[in-house]
Amino acid sequence: MERRVNARPRLIVIGGDAAGMSAASQARRLRDSAELEILALERGPHTSYSACGIPYLVGKTVSSPEALISRDPATFRRDFEIDVRTGTEVEGIDLDRRTVTARPAGGRAVEESFDQLMIATGAVPVRPGLPGMDAPGVFGVQTLSDGIAVREFVDSRRPRTAVVVGGGYIGLEMAEAFVQRGMEVRLIEAATEPMTTLDPDMGRLVRDALTGMGVRVHLSEPVTGVETAPGGGAVRAVATEEASYPADIVVLGLGVRPGSDLARAAGIEIGPTGGIAVDARMRTSAEGVWAAGDCVQSLHRVSHAPVSIALGTHANKQGRVAGTNIGGGYARFGGVLGTAISKVCDLEVARTGLNEAEARRAGFEFETATLESTTRAGYFPGAAAMTLKMLAERRSRRLLGAQIVGWENAGKRIDVLATALWNSMSVEDVAAMDLGYAPPFSPVWDPVLITARKLAEQM
Amino acid sequence: MERRVNARPRLIVIGGDAAGMSAASQARRLRDSAELEILALERGPHTSYSACGIPYLVGKTVSSPEALISRDPATFRRDFEIDVRTGTEVEGIDLDRRTVTARPAGGRAVEESFDQLMIATGAVPVRPGLPGMDAPGVFGVQTLSDGIAVREFVDSRRPRTAVVVGGGYIGLEMAEAFVQRGMEVRLIEAATEPMTTLDPDMGRLVRDALTGMGVRVHLSEPVTGVETAPGGGAVRAVATEEASYPADIVVLGLGVRPGSDLARAAGIEIGPTGGIAVDARMRTSAEGVWAAGDCVQSLHRVSHAPVSIALGTHANKQGRVAGTNIGGGYARFGGVLGTAISKVCDLEVARTGLNEAEARRAGFEFETATLESTTRAGYFPGAAAMTLKMLAERRSRRLLGAQIVGWENAGKRIDVLATALWNSMSVEDVAAMDLGYAPPFSPVWDPVLITARKLAEQM
């Protein structure tokens, strides 16, 4: 195997999406190409794209895949002097020799040496080992290539019935996309309600809204397999213990796990979540080796437990922190709150901090309050329903988490509660805050304030 | 003059809107009518209405005045056992005798004795002493009665041309209302840009948007008088040093001052803003006398200076604090940030904390950063422009204030910055926060995060 040796210090980045390319470009901002060579190796054909935009590509809310790409390889080469090699799979990391083994698609493996290594290998979609899961017409929606494949399938095959397996964010957004494409859509979820990142009472509201949009929701039904046309043909139906549901297309939205196998094989420390263990500067257990994005574990600021949350925002921030440190600067990642927001047709769903199950697991004694309110003054046209739930610790009255389900303009209010959580505010203090009020924007007592007050009074 | 004496302890509330009735109803929640008699005296015909809704009543976004009333006198009598007397003007407070002099419209003054007194006398609109200001067709929009009068004038007289004097929130909202009613609208402002609560560079954006909506904006033009039809007739035009502008209707939105005259005459301490001096429990300088709402001064949490900001949110919160304390409970008002939000047609305008002039006045050394971004991911349909400006203190890097001008969904982001200010966050810390992201809601780096980062990097 050929071995290349380099004169300048060299950073190798494994993974060319959010975390990897944020790190690479930030390192470049601090060190020019005379000081630092940067090589980025990406398995797929794309760099720096919005994975969160994939459902909208499928639903044709977004017209072309190019719209989701924030910087392509040519841009990185031209504007950042970063040598990006797409279609190149890294097969191994040798920490002693400080090399990685990289194989271009259909080509010969090459050993590339590094001075610093940035691991940004992302997440691996969960695919249950059930019959038919690899049949034509069964898709994951992890990468932009997956999204393009789903869209092309829908465009060319014109499926009439769709089954989405898994009722999380991706599942819901894909259900919406298929509704927009005129399909008959079923959502199958093993849990008692969709959106298990919410408490069941809030998930119930999501279920009702989905049903209202014409999506058939099947709950407490673990999928047992995919039925295909005879002779290894295309998908025909999705089977559960209850029934068999016809499906011309199936999308799996069963969550992801950290893509830490490469790091693990190299002897880099992996944490209890299965994510690569990193400190706040995004250093791994190996000298000069950094990691960021969906493949790492992060500190949850409320539970203080390690968590692995696959989300573009963390990937971007962590990548930037790593890049700053790699470039000789100083930056720390502040941890996560588990903030997430999603939209299914016009329903907005958001959460931050801990839900009831998470708070119990973290050992908190807590109380909850739920408020049904409106997004604008009650008398103002367009005032839409929103339900807000908050959790607070019993003794300290500290806010622990919040969940929102509601219509237009409800969701982004979660940021106020994320900011409150970031600052460990008590619910009394949240209730006292000076938030913006005008009739088109909220009732005079913003739902955030009333729910916090209700919770404070209750304790 | 007749004097009534009471057996039970008696609370008299002067002013039946947000602050007064919040205090009265909260006191009632803690003390039933056997323990505390409550008498509320209101000069006008209405109680507890949304003054902020008046422009929408005039613009017919809201159909009837009743929609703006949250609780009418009958409701307070029935559900809260509060004796509400509308049309009753309080002419004086005697602290030694512990009485107020109350005169029902067209009736005889009566002396009413109190054990505790709650002053919620609101704000007084600024009316310049210029010729013609009292002419028919010239309106303030302070009370619900004002709003009803403007609407009736528009309905019956069908004015063709409207002039709004003063480019603050009320002025802008009234300009929108008149545009909606099909009038030719001019906005006349003495300052160099509208919305002087924003910095001029942000006010400029508001001006451009107003012009785009067809409103003719005249800046740096102090009004010199109102021209009327001969013989003390109706308004015909508004005159400035530059020109005379035809007007079938004129609305004055020149701001307000605290309505503290009654308290001052009674010897209660008035602060440097002209508002009644109160502590965090809403106690005035006089034993057993409380005050809340537009008539008081509050502590600004960033400048630490006293301010008088007439806003329904503060009035409601302060009233509730006073009511809790009056009822024997314990509550403190946490101060204000000067958060405000408004909408002119589809333009959203919001601010919190200190603007440049206020920060300079408070003695801060600061830097600013301004970002032009979008309300959703750039590729997502409906992504609209928003401009976000932040100020931070030079040494501490502490956030001092923020301003937003933008389209749909831009404005309420101010609450995140208000929450950050409430917690004295540094811009580095703001930039690190875990805010909600999905393509329909924001770019992957929320504008709030990027602006904070930009400001942090700049210092």
Which secondary-structure class do the elements of chain A indicate?
alpha/beta
Q: In angstroms, what is the radius of gyration of chain A?
A: 23 Å
How much helix is in the residues of chain A?
25-40%
Compute the number of strand runs of chain A.
26
Separation, N- and C-terminal Cα atoms of chain A:
68 Å
Which percent band covers the strand fraction of chain A? 25-35%
Largest interface: A-B, 63 and 64 residues
* Quaternary form: homodimer
Shape of chain A: globular
CATH class of the largest domain in chain A: Alpha Beta
Q: Helical segment tally of chain A?
A: 12
- Read across the widest sheet of chain A, the strand sequence of neighbours is 4-3-2-8-19
Overall structural domain count of chain A: 3
| CATH evolutionary superfamily of the largest domain in chain A | FAD/NAD(P)-binding domain
- CATH topology value of the largest domain in chain A: FAD/NAD(P)-binding domain
Poorly predicted residue ranges of chain A:
none
Q: Would you summarize the structure shown here?
A:
With about 450 residues, the first copy, chain A, is α/β, with parallel strands linked by helices. The first copy, chain A, has helices at about 20-30, 55-60, 75-80, 145-155, 170-180, 200-210, 260-265, 310-325, 355-360, 415-420, 425-430, 445-459, and strands at about 5, 10-15, 35-40, 85, 90-95, 100-105, 110-115, 115-120, 125, 140, 160-165, 185-190, 215-220, 225-230, 235-240, 245, 250, 255-260, 290, 300, 305, 340-345, 345-355, 365-375, 385-395, 400-405.
